[in-house]
Design goal:
By secondary structure, the protein is α/β, with parallel strands linked by helices. The chain has one domain. The chain contains 4 helices and 7 strands. It has a 7-stranded mixed beta sheet, covered by helices on one side. Strand 3 and strand 4 form a beta hairpin. It is globular.
Amino acid sequence: MTQMTRRTMFLGAMTLTAAIPRAGIAQAQPAIHVLKDPNCGCCSAWVEILQQDGFSVTTEHEFGMLIARHKLEKGIPLEMSSCHTGEIEGYMIEGHVAPADIRRLLDERPDAIGLAVPGMPYGSPGMGPEDQREAYDVFLIRRDGSTEVFTTYEAA
């Protein structure tokens, strides 16, 4: 039988202590469900960016009018629409919204439908290199359908 020394106990306790915070972080990954066209490369690129940033992402493939109807039913105004839609903790995420903006939304918890990047601005996450980005805004969609600028990204 092996005798446990103080050093062995200390090392074991340190290993356990170091592992506990990592276990908590792994469980705290925000989960987002994304509706997207299965053939859309920029949608897939956005999903990969979210995954690399620590989001747990599930996808559902939808086409044309089905995804458009879903957006309208969830309160996304037509002028705010883009190519894919995500849902996270009761908020809608429309288009190429940066992970940092999603995290800020989840931290601040405004009374809103969610965030949108209308259209597909070049250089937004999943839409080409950031160092060639065109200027664009991320909009907060209020429950009454009004919008306000949440974040502004300047041209690179």
